[in-house]
Amino acid sequence: MALLKVLLLLGLGVSANSGVSLQKRIIGGQNCQDTERLYHVRLESSNATHSHLCGGSLIHSQWILTAAHCWESEPGWTNVVMLKVHPRTVIHYNQVIRDVPVIYGPNHNMMLLKLQTPVTDVPLPRLPDCNSRLKIDDVVQLAGEGATTTGYRRKRLKYPAIPSHLQCVDMNVVSLSHFHLTYGHVFEAKVPNKDICYGDVGGAVVHNDMIYGVISFVQYKSACRKPTAIMDVCKYLEWIKQTTGLE
Q: What is d(CA 133, CA 188) in angstroms, rounded to the nearest whole number?
């Protein structure tokens, strides 16, 4: 029987570990470079019984850009931002968010969080050049600390261990900016056999080293079924500048 299994595997041209390898390729991209995305932050919300994870970007010494539904406003919840989470060789530290978040408005998944203490030792990213808008098939880079594997039948994992290294993945723009009734102005990106997971929401979507988008929401419980929905930063750029004082 053992010999028969070996012969079957050889005949199929796969190895005994191929299932695990394929699973890792479904969502995961590759380790982000240690010199990029130093502005990436981790937003952790928790109460006595539950917790969840999001990403975000330090775009100003006191302001973080992320997705609005990453914030928990119910009594008993605490929202903490962990700064300098990438690369892992740097000592990270936390700040509890005490100010009320600034959310663009109902049915818009765009939020700014203000830090109590300014951060002066992190290189800040560039915001988009909105005179040069994204086009179909443009390559954008997404990053996050969500799951790098899936569960049974490619189900996304809700509470995985945080990966040991910030993950990056390149995707192609497949639909241009349009208005989503629940989340606001979004565009979509996709690439075969790669996807985001829950903990990646709020992370920056980069093109030409500028933040053109914010990962908005997971569209389906199973991975690789639908494109990734991304908030279009250009549609909110003036609001971001007015709120933060950026020029």
A: 14
Question: What token pair was written down for 82?
Answer: 């962990």
Q: How far apart are CA 14 and CA 18, in angstroms?
A: 6
Is 231:184 a contact under the CB 8 Å cutoff?
yes
Q: Tell me how far the alpha carbon of residue 1 is from its chain's centroid.
A: 46
Q: How far is it, in rounded angstroms, from Cα 37 to Cα 51?
A: 24
Q: How far apart are CA 133 and CA 151, in angstroms?
A: 36
Structure tokens given for 54: 């999001």
Among candidates 200, 87, 54, which has minimal Cα distance to 141?
200
Full-model pTM: 0.84
Per-residue model confidence as pLDDT tens digits over 29-67: 889 999 999 999 999 998 989 888 899 999 999 999 999
- Find the distance separating the first CA and the last CA of the chain, reported in whole Å: 70
Task: Give residues with Cβ within 8 angstroms of 5, minimum separation 6.
Answer: none
